[in-house]
UniProtKB/TrEMBL annotation:
Domain Aminoglycoside phosphotransferase per the UniProt entry, residue ranges: 12-242
Name of the protein this chain belongs to: Aminoglycoside phosphotransferase (APT) family kinase protein
Pfam families listed in its UniProt record: APH
GO molecular function, one term: kinase activity
Keywords: Kinase, Transferase
Organism of derivation: Kribbella amoyensis
Length: 301
């Protein structure tokens, strides 16, 4: 407990996410990141296993120390990792030029290709140090109806979204028959970049990772993207590097992202992302179209 108290004493909350459980600290003579697992203590062992699984394949931090189970005095589990270099990609993209955004988009595509090539045998959430898989809800329409009350939609909007979901069934029938590692929060706030070279240096925050669709992370990174330079670079690299994923990549990604969008939109008002997700769901419902008025980023058809 003494070691944990020494680490926690220098903790400074990190911005970017909305969980409030991640801190910048100094430990063992180097900058580090302390992640506490107060809300989901069982996730500590899973995150440790995932970081071991992908280390050397994806830009993830080394684990410096960990307490994967709560101690007898009630301190929550924690994982202490190195602090990777670079700045938050979301902030970097605000001022990056076309060349830099295109370079970043290509690297995002490369990471998506690598994730799509890490196979699992069935869909589900990870559990325990051996990443056992527990099945979860697999019917999008049923999932939608569990969120309808919190979404606050009019009857015609519910009917419109039901029609969108029905049409997604045809899209899924011709999609990739592949289950892979899904980061499930693959967006600029969880990526780091070297501002001098535009090289991606980190993919962080694996708390929602699971075994699922190769289109999920693609849909996540393109969810609020309106930049054709970045978006088309992502899609171009994924198309070339993972041809087994088929055509209509942008549409497939948006379809896979509906799971997360419904969940986020049902919590509208909690933070800017949940509010933006709710606005997007309303636009999809009002237009009856999966794009919801978002621009076509796929310049190669």
């Amino acid at each position: 407990m003494d070691g944990f108290e020494a680490i926690a004493a220098s903790a400074v909350p990190l911005t970017g996410g909305y969980g409030g459980e991640t801190y910048a600290v100094s430990a063992a003579g180097e900058d580090a990141v302390l992640r506490l697992y107060v809300r989901h203590p069982e996730r500590a062992v899973v995150d440790m296993a995932l970081l071991r699984l992908v280390r050397g394949l994806l830009p993830v931090p080394r684990v410096l120390d960990a307490m994967p189970e709560p101690d007898l005095e009630g301190a929550p589990p924690y994982v202490l990792t190195e602090r990777l270099p670079g700045i938050n990609l979301e902030r970097y993209l605000e001022t990056a030029g076309d060349d830099e955004r295109g370079k970043v988009g290509e690297q995002l595509g490369e990471l998506l290709v690598r994730l799509s090539g890490m196979p699992f045998l069935r869909y589900g959430e990870f559990s325990g140090p051996d990443l056992e898989i527990r099945s979860f809800e697999s019917d999008l329409l049923r999932w939608f109806h569990t969120k309808v009350e919190d979404l606050g939609l009019a009857r015609d909007q519910v009917e419109s979204l039901t029609g969108v979901i029905d049409r997604i069934g045809d899209l899924e029938a011709t999609g990739a028959d592949r289950i892979c590692l899904v980061h499930s929060d693959f967006n600029p706030k969880n990526l780091l970049v070297d501002p001098e070279t535009a090289e991606l240096t980190g993919l962080i925050d694996w708390e929602f990772a699971h075994a699922g669709s190769p289109y999920t992370d693609l849909g996540n990174v393109l969810r609020f993207c309106t930049d054709p330079v970045l978006g088309s670079a992502v899609l171009r690299v994924v198309r070339a590097g993972a041809p087994g994923l088929g055509d209509r990549l942008e549409e497939r990604g948006r379809a896979a992202d509906l799971w997360a969008l419904f969940d986020l939109a049902a919590r509208s008002g909690q933070n800017p992302v949940t509010t933006a997700a709710h606005d997007l769901i309303r636009r999809i419902a009002d237009t009856g179209d999966l794009s919801g008025g978002r621009p076509d980023l796929d310049v190669v058809h």
